[in-house]
Every structure is written in C-alpha cells, then in structure tokens.
Amino acid sequence: MxxxxxxxxxxxxxxxxxxxxxxxxxxxxxxAKDKLAETRAKIxxxxxxxxxxxxxxxxxxxxxxxxxxxxxxxxxxxDLIGVQISETTSxxxxxxxxxxxxxxxxxxxxxxxxxxxxxxxxxxxxxxxxFADLLSRLDFVNEVMDYDKSVIEDLRAIxxxxxxxxxxxxxxxxxxNEAKTELEAQIAEADALIAxxxxxxxxxxxxxxxxxxxxxxxEQEIREAEERARKEEEERKRKEEEERxxxxxxxxxxxxxxxxxxxxxxxxxxxxTRLITSPFGPRPAPGGIYSTYHGGVDIGASYGTNVxxxxxxxxxxxxxxxxxxxxxxxQHDHGNITLYGHMSRLLCSEGxxxxxxxxxxxVGSTGNSTGPHIHFEIRENGVKxxxxxxxxGWVRGFH
Length: 399
Ligand SMILES: [Zn+2]
Known about the structure:
Glucose Permease (Domain IIA), 2 domains, alpha+beta, nine-stranded mixed β-sheet, Helix Hairpins, binds zinc ion, about 400 residues, 5 helices
C-alpha cells in the first residue's frame, strides 16, 4: 500500500517537472544569481584573509625595522670599540718601545759597571732566559740598580694594565659580535616571514582576482538574461494589447468576471486575457528535438488578476504543490479535473464547493516559473487533454 502511494507520488513529481519546466520562460539567471552570491561570499572571505595577511606582513616589517635599527646601533658601537682596541694596542706598543729603551739603558749601565770592575757577577744576569727571569735575578743587585729596576717595573705594570684593558675591550667586542649575529639571525627570520606573507598575499590576490572575474562574468550573464526577459515581457504585453484591441473591436466585455462558458462546459480560467504563451503537447528540448511534454497551456494573464474556476466542482487541492507553486485542483463530475498553477494567492480551501467563474486565487509566478501566468490543465479520466480543444478565441503568443 505504502509502496503504491510512493510510486504515485513519484509519478506526480515527475509529471510536475515534465509538465511545467519546459513550457515556461527560462528561470533566467537564477543559477547565475546563486553562483554570483556564492562568488561574492568567497570574495568577502578572501578580502578578510588578504587583510589578515597584510596585517601580518606589516607587523613583521615593523619588527624588522626595529631589528635593523638595533643592528645598526650595535655595529656603530662595535666600530667604536674597534677604535678603542686599536688605540690600546698602539699604547701597548709604545710602552714596549719605552721598556726596550729603558732596558738598553740598563744594560749599558751594567756593562759600564762591569768594565769598571765594581760588580763581578753581571755576566750571570745576561744568561737570563727572558725578561721575567732577569727581573728575579735583579734581586741580587737591587741595592745597585734600584732606580732602573723601578722604572722597568712601572712600565711593566702599565703594560699589564693596558693588556687587561685590551682584553676587556676584546671581550666586549666578542659579546657585541655575538649579539649582532643573533640580531642578524632574527632579521633573516623576519625576511623569510615577509617573503612568506608576500607569497601568501600574492596567491590570495590571484584567487581574489579570479573570483572577481567570475563575478563580473556572472553579472554580465544575469544582465543579459534580464534583458532577454524584459524583451519577452514587452513582446507579451504587446500581444496582449493587440488582443484587447481585437476584443474591443469585436465588442467583447473585457474585465467582467462573468465566465465565458463554452459548449464543452469549460470556461476560461481568466477574463484578463486569451493569450496562450505556451501550448499543450510536445515541446522542443534545447537541442531542438521534440523530447518534452507540456501537460497544459500557459495563459499569459497579468499578475494579481483573478483565477476563475473553469467548471463547478469540489476543490481537491489548494496549497503549494511542488513545481506548480500555489496550485488549485478542482474535481468535476464524470471524473474530470482542472488544475491551475503558479498562483500568487489561494482563495479557496480544500473540500470547498465552487461554482463556475468563482474566483479561486490570484495570478502569480510561484513554483517553477518566473513570469506571471496561469498553467491550466484539463484531465479527463486521468488523461491530460489539450484545453484549447475546449477554450475558443485564444490568441497565439508563442513561436
Ligand atoms: Zn505550464
């Protein structure tokens, strides 16, 4: 039982899609509009990402600027210390020269003393292995050479101080060079980050440009579709006006809600127009081959005008009905029904008895439709028949 219901529903669904889609004006730009909205959302997202990437890059560039400043200051300090070191070094050299001179003087005095034979063990002193050794040997002769010894010792003390100073300066220089190396590493890191952010920014920008191009293309597509729809609408209005003129010439009532009953007992579901914008039966598919079937006729009535019951009966359906949008189905005698699709408003309820010409809703464009019209079907014993077999005086509004 359930299975059967399901298959009936499926069949109905298929009918709705088969019957209604092909005969109607294309749902112009709808998919393009969806795509455009999607593309615009993507662009907004990319804009945010770009902003973030640029902020990151600016941040790193600021940091790098500060690092550069610090590095430059440090290099200046290193230069200054280098100058101090070289000054100290030349002072040490000067000191060495002075000491050598003093030592020469000292040696000359020692030699003179020896020649005069005052002190006999001077030769021992000349066997000193170095200056330090000599100074210790001088202990033996200090009562004689006190003065010279103190001069040399003073020089030696100054030189030791200078050497200490130089060592301290060199230590400072080494520390600064280390700091500089560290700063340079940080700068290199910042450079790498900047390069990375630049690359990211470039990629995001490229994607952004691509999406902007997509959006422009879609907008163009929508504009063209709207232009086509506008021309179609103009054409429809022109034909409608022709029809009105024709009816006036024939003395038609126009605007009266008195239904025009035809022999079969079916009346036009509108008094607004007799324009048929899409006929019953096979319709050319986009490829040009007859492959789809329109189960009713489309009547090009104006938005908001009355939709009338074609024949008296009981309202079977009065609700949203898939691709038919707001739809009314009326059950008549002898198992025949009529269907009215795409209404903007429903003005009858299911189970209600309606008489011929009674207003059951207002013309709209709901469901699979973009322009306002009435999709009108007649089914006899479940078979869709061409309503134009019954409705007379129709005007051709299709190619
Ligand atoms: Zn239709």
